């Protein structure tokens, strides 16, 4: 996972771990400082613009979490896409369950105003790539401020 999930640290954080049953996990800042040596709950959490600022939340096993581990919501189903579908700069999470598709959106109010994230060319391309079977959350060319 790559995303700005730690408000006290500037830039994007990077989380990684060993696959296939490995027990080592790491969370690094943009400056290379190690913040964490344990699992966030799964190997590939998803970072999402959800609340009222430029810091992302992350989704682990259906729980929407604000750093370090405060739950701010829940979702059900397998995540199939993350995108700013409604155009308010915060992202919706699209999931699939047996026989249904769900779109989750935030209910947290915000006074911040940004253009729709889909106006960013890299972001728009990343959203399109999600539909091709290689899922990863979209990134912006420049971070939100």
C-alpha-based Rg, rounded? 15 Å
Number of strands: 11
Count of individual helical segments: 1
Order of secondary-structure elements = EEEEEEEEEEEH
Given the C-alpha coordinates, what overall shape results?
A: globular
Mean pLDDT: 96
Q: What distance lies between the first and last C-alpha atoms, to the nearest angstrom?
A: 20 Å
What does this structure look like?
The structure is a single chain. By secondary structure, this protein is mainly beta. It has one domain. Helix content is 7%, strand content 32%. It contains one helix and eleven strands, in the order βββββββββββα. The protein has one helix at 121-130; strands at 2-3, 13-17, 25-28, 34-36, 46-48, 57-60, 63-66, 70-74, 78-83, 92-97, 100-104. The strands form three sheets. It has a four-stranded antiparallel beta sheet, with no helix packed on it. The chain has a four-stranded antiparallel beta sheet with strand order 5-6-7-8, with no helix packed on it. The protein is globular and about 35 Å long. It starts with a strand and ends in a 15-residue tail after the last helix. The model has no long low-confidence stretch (mean pLDDT 96).
